[in-house]
Design a protein that fits this description.
Layout (H helix, E strand, L loop, with lengths): L1 E8 L3 H12 L4 E6 L4 E7 L5 E7 L22 E8 L3 H7 L6 E7 L2 E7 L6 H4 L3 E5 L14 E9 L2 H7 L1 H4 L4 E5 L4 E8 L2 E6 L3 E2 L1
Parallel strand pairs: 1-4, 5-8, 9-10
Antiparallel strand pairs: 1-5, 2-3, 3-4, 6-7, 7-8, 9-11, 11-12, 12-13
């Protein structure tokens, strides 16, 4: 498995994009729409292997008739880091090794990109939603289309009271590069990004430089 992208949730795509651009000091690029989920996004390269996605409900899309991913149906408040996604060469195999509740295998496409992804029925991932969503690209990856802006992913840090149990239940996740699992009184998620302005940490609760 490899870190594929981190996901910033927002009530509107413009609001989320402005917030990320202000924090990181670089512009985002146009993404597209996800018809199956009724969402749309904008993107930012974080190096050769991963990227950042700002995602929001698409007001011009019909309701999807299912729960949207990443808990977007119930999202409110300022834009913030919501989830992260790892890619696998063998998605079914990784789903079998991961903790229960990672979701149902679902097929997606957007603007010539195709991928499979495990999507929980309620939009929330195990271990209080700090685990990554699992995906597998079919052909080109979204990151390969993005322009380098001088931002690089340093690491993703997930914190949880049951961090030791998480490591035991999913050893492959604990061994991933650029991923740290730490014990904490409360579940949280943080992405450390090196930017032209210096190191910026995006989290669910706060954004600090």
């Amino acid at each position: 498995m490899q870190l594929d992208h981190v996901v910033v949730l927002a009530e509107t795509l413009d609001e989320g994009s402005r917030a990320v651009e202000e924090m990181l000091g670089v512009p985002l690029e146009a993404g597209g729409s996800h018809a199956l989920m009724g969402t749309h996004n904008r993107l930012l390269s974080l190096g050769e292997e991963c990227y950042l996605e700002v995602i929001a409900v698409d007001p011009d899309a019909p309701k999807p008739g299912r729960t949207r991913w990443f808990g977007l149906d119930g999202f409110s408040g300022p834009p913030r880091l919501g989830n992260w996604v790892v890619r696998a060469k063998d998605l079914r195999g990784q789903m079998a090794e991961a903790p229960m509740g990672m979701g149902e295998l679902t097929q997606f496409e957007r603007g010539g990109l195709e991928w499979s992804m495990a999507v929980p029925a309620d939009g929330m991932l195990p271990f209080d939603n700090v685990l990554p969503a699992l995906m597998q690209w079919k052909g080109a990856r979204a990151q390969s289309r993005l322009t380098e802006r001088g931002c690089k992913m340093k690491r993703v840090v997930l914190r949880h009271p049951d961090a030791e149990r998480l490591r035991a239940e999913w050893p492959a996740l604990a061994q991933m590069p650029k991923v740290a699992i730490e014990v904490s009184a409360h579940p949280s998620l943080e992405a450390e990004i090196v930017t032209p302005r210096g190191l910026v940490a995006l989290s669910r609760l706060t954004e600090t430089a």
